[in-house]
Specification:
Number of strands: 14
Oligomer: single chain
Strand order of the largest sheet: 3-4-2-1-14-13
Order of helices and strands: EHEHEEEEEHEHHEEEEHEE
DNA sequence: ATGGTGGCGCGGCCA
């Protein structure tokens, strides 16, 4: 199974790029974040024409997640059980015996802000949700825009970012809890080039200067990590005209 | 440079 995640920053704007990328990359499953679409406006037919079924959970203007799959999506679940969230950030589904959990983790805005506190509360609840999923599914993928860079190697200038939102210690501790539950960062299962990122700020020509962070992750349960054959970030769509500020991250594994 | 760009939607918020 080849599975990918991509924060598209408006599916209305980026649908042609998503369709183009599906055609070239040929993933079996693609998890999207920041669709920014209410469910009645979701482009189901265009995606079906590309050969993908889709589950989605959106709202107007902000947030929104979706899972595209060539094979049927079952046991679709919206949101995190036990966490009353008015923001559409979580979608789960099962594909070919693999449980898929698509996340758009809150950005957090700034350390110490209300949004940062919400991010940490959200991540604390997520750990319980992931633990419950792992207890039920040995084959689990947790992927999406985590809005956290795991380590120094995932940040263009770690010293400048240390303690800042997306790279603060409490955020990294929250991410480490997921690793401690038995999830592996698929990207780090392989030798990788240095300075591989998945997000570059639109401002200050971040992409041109490769000033970015790797915050889009594909985490795998132990069973899937043991069978993982490849993991990467595809920078190409970030160089397209009118791009998302994120690039797709991918992992492949044998079932 | 406490800036910068982009999306939504038409003022200001969010990232």
């Amino acid at each position: 199974m080849k599975i990918a995640t991509w924060n598209v920053n408006s599916l209305r704007v980026r649908l042609p790029q998503v369709l183009q990328w599906l055609e070239t990359a040929q993933p079996d499953v693609l998890a999207l974040q920041e669709t920014k679409l209410s469910d009645d406006k979701f482009p189901v037919e265009e995606i079906a024409a590309a050969g993908y079924q889709v589950a989605f959970h959106g709202q107007p203007t902000y947030n929104g997640v979706a899972i595209l799959s060539r094979l049927p999506l079952t046991d679709v679940r919206i949101g995190m059980p036990g966490f009353d969230d008015d923001q559409a950030r979580v979608l789960a589904a099962t594909v070919d015996g693999v449980r898929v959990l698509d996340l758009y983790v809150p950005n957090g805005q700034e350390v110490g802000s209300e949004k940062y506190a919400y991010k940490l509360r959200w991540l604390e609840h997520l750990a319980g949700v992931v633990a419950a999923e792992l207890a039920q599914h040995s084959r689990l993928v947790v992927l999406g825009d985590f809005n956290i860079a795991p380590a120094d190697a995932d940040v263009h200038d770690p010293e400048a970012w240390r303690g800042k939102v997306l790279f603060s210690e409490p955020e990294k501790v929250a991410l480490q809890r997921l690793f401690d539950l038995g999830l592996a960062d698929s990207f780090r299962l392989f030798d990788q080039d240095e300075n591989v990122f998945s997000w570059w700020d639109y401002r200050a020509a971040g992409f041109r200067r490769n000033i970015g962070l790797r915050i889009d992750l594909v985490l795998l349960s132990e069973t899937l990590a043991a069978n993982c054959t490849d993991a990467s970030v595809d920078r190409a769509p970030r160089a397209w005209e009118r791009p998302s500020d994120h690039a797709p991250a991918l992992a492949s594994f044998k079932l």
